[in-house]
Amino acid sequence: MTTTATQPVTFRPTVAVKPQSLGRSVHAEWIKFWTVRSTAWTLVATVAVMVGISMLAAWGSSIDAVDAGSGPMNTAQLLSAGYQMAQLAVAVLGVLTISGEYSTGMIRSTLAAVPQRVPVLAAKALVLSTVVAGISLVSMALSYVATMPWHDQLDARFDLTDPETLRMTVGLPLYLMAIAGFAFVIGALVRHSAAALTAVIALLLVIENVLMMIPVRAIELISPFLPSSAGRRILFDSETLEATNAMTEGAHLSPWAGYAVLVTWVLVLGALAAITLRRRDA
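RE: above sequence
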């Protein structure tokens, strides 16, 4: 009787497995970002409200200019006229970018592919910021074209060599990126779309505005440092800032100091979200 020796079978993967890196995480998140239907809806809404409100602002200002004989207008004001509605659209996008994966369970597959976890958060934030910056610039360009019929009547000027005009023009994409990032880290902390959206919208539209009207010294000192109140100062011209300062008590932040406060909110909450992501189960 003879015995036939069996050779060990070696399995070779048919697909090359590449080591995980931030670049590959960004590429994967970029693909996932554009496969979600809510992405297209929120981006279209952002463009629509920014262009539409800019046109309404130009038309309304032209009527005021005829009636009151007002002076020339800085075109950067027209381009950022729809920032309040646009911030809601990008806030929804920011929350859904992270909370949508928790609602579908996709986050477990994502974290299985990237066990370090924190690069996932960084990759999502990078993709979100890039898209929001791009859609903001597109919206501003379309708003400029859409408001051109009223430029001559308003004596509208758009001189990027003027520091204030440059700051307001660059400030809109920066502000919307920060608001999207703020909503994103809230979504990463809360992990529930409805709860996170409620918290972000309530803070941006209700809580901050209500607190500004309460004549309590402690609240007057805190209000200028709330996220939207501080960050949106980068969008205002000097006259608007002076008028706002005259109506409010407490600290009067410069435009860039206010934006730094908003970014600090995002970074601190982002650090908490990163710690939470590492320590909690998906």
